[in-house]
Specification:
This is F420-0--gamma-glutamyl ligase. The protein has 229 residues and is α+β, with helices and mostly antiparallel strands. The protein has a single domain, classed as NADH Oxidase. It is 38% helix and 15% strand. Helix 2 runs antiparallel to helix 6. The chain is globular and about 55 Å long.
Length: 229
C-alpha cells in the first residue's frame, strides 16, 4: 500500500458532509443508541450459513476506521472452513483449561462467575464464521523494508468496534473471545511475526433458546461513565 516515493501531503475537499438540524442530530443519536442497545453477546449459535459477501462488507466497514498515521495496522482472518475452526477450538480450549485451572487467579475466576463461562467453547465450531483480529506491529514498504506503525492498540480497537457494529447492523450475533495466549493463531492462519492476534469473534445467528446472563444488561449510567466540563 505504501511506497517510499508516494509519501506526501495532498489535501482534498471534504468528500462527504452532513448538515442536520439539532433535532435531527438528536433523533439520529437516539436511534443509534437504541440500535446498539439491542446488540447482545451470545454463546448459543446455530450453524445457519452466512453469505461470505456479508462478512466481506462488514470487514470493509472495519477497514474504514481511523488509525495512527493512516497505517491501518489491522488484519482480519475470516474462517468458515470446518476443519480449521475445529483446530482453533481445540487449541483455544487447551489455553482456556489452563486459564480456569489456576492460570487466571481466584479473583479473575470469581469475576467471571456471573457471566457463566468455562473452558468449553462449542461456539468456535458451531458458528458459521470466526473472524480473528490481528494487530500489525510493523508494516513493509513496497521494497520490503519495514516501517513502524503508530497507536496500534488504539487503532485496532476502534476498527474492531466498527466491525462489531457492522455485524450487528447486518442482523448477526457475535461473541468476542480472547484465549490467552493466542500465538497459536499465527501458526494456524499463516500470519507473520509482525502481527499479534487480539481477538476471535464468533459470528452467526443465535439459537431459539439462546440466553444472555442477566448481569450483561447492567450497564453503568451516564453519570458514571462521563463528565461534562
Amino acid at each position: 500500500m505504501f511506497a517510499r516515493t508516494a509519501l506526501s501531503y495532498d489535501p482534498l475537499p471534504l468528500p462527504d458532509r452532513t448538515d442536520l438540524s439539532p433535532a435531527e442530530m438528536q433523533d439520529k443519536a437516539e436511534a443509534f443508541l437504541k440500535h446498539m442497545q439491542q446488540r447482545h453477546t451470545v454463546r448459543d449459535f446455530t450453524d445457519q450459513p452466512v453469505e461470505r459477501s456479508v462478512i466481506e462488507t462488514c470487514i470493509r466497514t472495519a477497514g474504514s476506521a481511523p488509525s495512527g498515521a493512516n497505517h491501518q495496522p489491522w488484519f482480519f482472518a475470516a474462517i468458515s472452513d470446518p476443519a480449521l475452526k475445529a483446530r482453533i477450538r481445540e487449541e483455544a480450549e487447551e489455553e482456556e483449561r489452563r486459564f480456569y485451572e489456576g492460570g487466571a487467579g481466584d479473583e479473575w475466576i470469581k469475576a467471571l462467575e456471573p457471566i457463566g463461562t468455562d473452558a468449553h467453547k462449542p461456539h468456535l465450531t458451531i458458528a458459521p464464521w470466526l473472524i480473528v483480529v490481528f494487530a500489525q506491529r510493523w508494516g513493509e514498504f513496497d521494497d520490503g523494508t519495514r516501517y513502524k506503525n503508530y497507536y496500534v492498540p488504539e487503532s485496532v480497537n476502534i476498527a474492531t468496534g466498527f466491525l462489531l457494529a457492522a455485524l450487528h447492523t447486518a442482523g448477526l450475533s457475535t461473541l468476542t473471545h480472547t484465549p490467552n495466549p493466542m500465538k497459536f493463531l499465527n501458526g494456524a492462519l499463516g500470519r507473520p511475526a509482525s502481527e499479534k492476534p487480539t481477538m476471535i469473534i464468533a459470528v452467526g445467528h443465535p439459537t431459539a433458546d439462546a440466553t444472555v446472563p442477566s448481569v450483561a444488561k447492567m450497564k453503568k449510567p451516564l453519570e458514571e461513565i462521563s463528565a461534562f466540563f
